[in-house]
Amino acid sequence: MKPNNEIFFRASGNGALMTDGRGTVLTDNMKKDLEDFKTKLRNGGKLTDPQKLKFDDYIKRENAPFELSDTAKSFVKENWLWLEKGFYKALKTDFTDKGIFNEEEGLSLMSRVHGNFYKKNTTRKYKGNLTGECDVEFKQGTTKIILDVKNCWDAKTFINAKPDKIYDWQGETYMDLYEADEFWLCYTLTDCPDHLLNKQKEKLWRQYYDESMSPEEASAMEERMTPMFEQIERNLVYSNSKLYTEEERIKIFKYQRDGEKFKLLLDRIPSALEYYQTIKLNDITL
Amino acid sequence: MATLTKATAKKVTFRELCEQPETKAKFNEMLGEKNGVSFLDSAIRMVQNRQDLVDCEPESVLNAVSAIASLDLMIDPSFGQAFIDTYKFKIGLRWFNFAQFQIGYKGLIELGHRTNSFLIIHTDDVRDGEYKSINRMTGEIEFEWNNDQDARKKLPVIGFIAYFQLTAGFRKSMYMTVKEMQDHGKKWSKNFRDKDKGWQKDFDGMGRKTVLKLLLDKYAPKSREMKRAIAFDQAIINDIHGQSLNYIDNPNTKVKVNLEDQNKAVERQRIIDHIENSKTIPRLEQVFEHIPDEEIRELYDQKIIKLTTKKK
């Protein structure tokens, strides 16, 4: 087992450490109810039976020792498998393929629109028990900015794209690792690479085609399907369309560095390390 | 591969294609009225006897047949002058079978003799023990031929030789070992491992043809017909006039997507765009430390001069 100083949690997933475990946390509503119940009791009032049940549960939650959530444990286990056994399973879908394939295209689009030159970063940073490799490290005047560029699959995923808490923590971690002032989460809408575009058409084709078709029938069907193929192109290729400007194919969420917030993440690292040291591949209690 | 013969939407048979007046006119023009008709008849019979050709896109078969006719070679493969091979090829979403013209070594020799420029033009195999040495200075290869024909036939083939001598006196030879020939076949033929196709079916014939073709292509004066034969060889011919060719065997024509190379190319273009679009020196300088080569450095230097002049 690796010693604690050789254990690193990846920035791209360490937001999982910040998720709360079931039965151990008071939500804002619960906190308000608990305060109300306490006030009522202090003033000599009595709780109804359902209120009493809630009160006991909330007190239990309030006094529960901190415990990593299942999501956090699962994240630590993934890190354990990688660091101890070299096991890593990349999620591979057409969506992730486009992200990988169009990484540079996304940067080019942003560079054109912003007039800045964005260079893909290839240096991984390590600090404490955290590690990360941001997409771009960039300086604007005296402000150091970290960019994370995400290529959306299509216009629908782009329009709905918004940051979730995982990105919040990823951004905070990057800013700490690279000593940056800002983190920009950038969503871009780039053209689907040809091989993935053809794959989409082929998938559609296979829904209708069967081996028993004669060449004439297949040709006729292909012709009938032309509008559907064209629609796929319209949905996935933007650079040749007058309906999309380059400016609107970029969406950026900007974050300022927040040391106080980041401290909350650092506070969870000892628990994660403690849990890490208990993991065994064949442990039946985990 | 955009110009590959378009797969016919409504399948016309090869025979129907041959019977069309424009096809007949084209063959008559190439071979004369009598020969044109009999050539097409032979072609129809040959296709009828080969299911792989029946399954091919008829236009591609007709274009391969037309190539043979335009070179005035024998269509019957037993003469060893020309062959028609078949390939499966994907266009868009579907697979199609295409016919591919192949010149035989006897075809090359025939075309060479027709020019009257060659005194000798020959190709043969080389048997175990016959190869002696090569003079790297002159390119002359020394062999000690086994003249006992029966004993020779029992020896393993170790390579192939091609030789020509022009009437003007110039002579040249080329030798390729079996290993070199196999490597060549693997590199240039998609059907190399297909047991029913050229290399596996007739390695000897392909070896002789290949070494002769390479020799002629490199060193011999070529007639128009010879040039056409070499160009047509292993090509899918897209039109009856042989003006448009696709070499599906050629590894250089295959599009391989290499992410690293692509990323480099996209980044390079981004650098060029940035240099061209920069309106101020500080903006331009963002790219300075990432300049990948001299060409872009030159572009950068020109731009910086332009911006400096503008500033003054």
Structure overview:
The complex is a heterodimer of chains A (286) and B (312). Chain A is an alpha/beta fold and 286 residues long. Chain A has 11 helices and 7 strands. Chain A has helices at 28-42, 49-63, 70-85, 94-101, 103-114, 155-160, 165-177, 194-208, 215-224, 226-236, 259-278, and strands at 9-10, 125-127, 130-132, 136-140, 143-151, 182-188, 250-256. In chain A, the strands form 2 sheets. In chain A, strands 4-5-6-7 form a 4-stranded mixed β-sheet. In chain A, a hairpin with a 2-residue loop joins strand 4 (136-140) and strand 5 (143-151). The longest helix of chain A is centred in the C-terminal third of the chain and has 20 residues, at 259-278. With 312 residues, chain B is an alpha+beta fold. Chain B is extended. Residues 1-10 and 250-256 of chain B have low confidence and may be disordered. Chain A binds chain B through residues 100-101, 103-105, 107-108, 111-112, 115-120, 193, 195, 201-202, 205, 209, 215-216, 218-220, 222-223, and chain B through 7, 9-11, 92-94, 257, 259, 262-263, 266-267, 269-271, 273-274, 277-279, 283, 286-287, 290.
Can you give keywords for this protein?
heterodimer; A: 286 residues; alpha/beta; 4-stranded mixed sheet; 3-stranded mixed sheet; 11 helices; 7 strands; B: 312 residues; alpha+beta; 3 domains; 3-stranded antiparallel sheet; two-stranded antiparallel sheet; 14 helices; extended; disordered N terminus
What's the arrangement of secondary structure elements?
The complex is a heterodimer of chains A (286) and B (312).
Chain A lengths: L8 E2 L17 H15 L6 H15 L6 H16 L8 H8 L1 H12 L10 E3 L2 E3 L3 E5 L2 E9 L3 H6 L4 H13 L4 E7 L5 H15 L6 H10 L1 H11 L13 E7 L2 H20 L8
Parallel strand pairs in A: 1-3, 5-6
Antiparallel strand pairs in A: 2-3, 4-5, 6-7
Chain B lengths: L13 H6 L1 H11 L1 H16 L2 H4 L3 H13 L11 E10 L2 E10 L1 H10 L3 E10 L3 E4 L6 E3 L5 H6 L2 E10 L4 E7 H11 L9 H4 L1 H17 L4 H9 L3 E2 L7 E2 L12 H19 L3 H5 L8 H18 L1
Antiparallel strand pairs in B: 1-2, 3-6, 4-5, 6-7, 8-9
